[in-house]
Amino acid sequence: MARVKRGVTAHRRHKRLLKAAEGRRGTKSRLIRPAREALLHAMAYSYVGRKQRKRQMRALWIVRLNAAARQHGMTYAKFVAGLKRAGVALDRKILADIAVRDAATFASIAEVARAS
Length: 116
Fold this sequence. Notes:
By secondary structure, the protein is mostly helical. The chain has one domain (about 10-115): c-terminal domain of poly(a) binding protein. It has helices at about 5-20, 30-70, 75-85, 90-100, 105-115. Helix 1 (about 5-20) packs parallel to helix 2 and helix 4 crosses helix 5 (about 105-115). The radius of gyration is 26 Å and the shape is rod-shaped.
């Protein structure tokens, strides 16, 4: 069996790793072993962060809806309960967007929630 020299393969893998580690401070962007550790941690954090982003956005929408609902004399809980009873099938993302961009439309939605 022929002898296989792995220098080119290892060099290519190391270059790819260092390219991904660009922008980090100190040896984490220059040396292979610290760069690999930094990237493994970064990938773990980014995986968790993608899940947390969804929670944080939902919390932001709820805060915005609560503020907008209180301007119309009701709490977030009463607002959402009223919408559910009225059969309005708008999700929190859309409702928060309407509250921020179109106050008149949100006022009419709030009246529907209050009436039911």
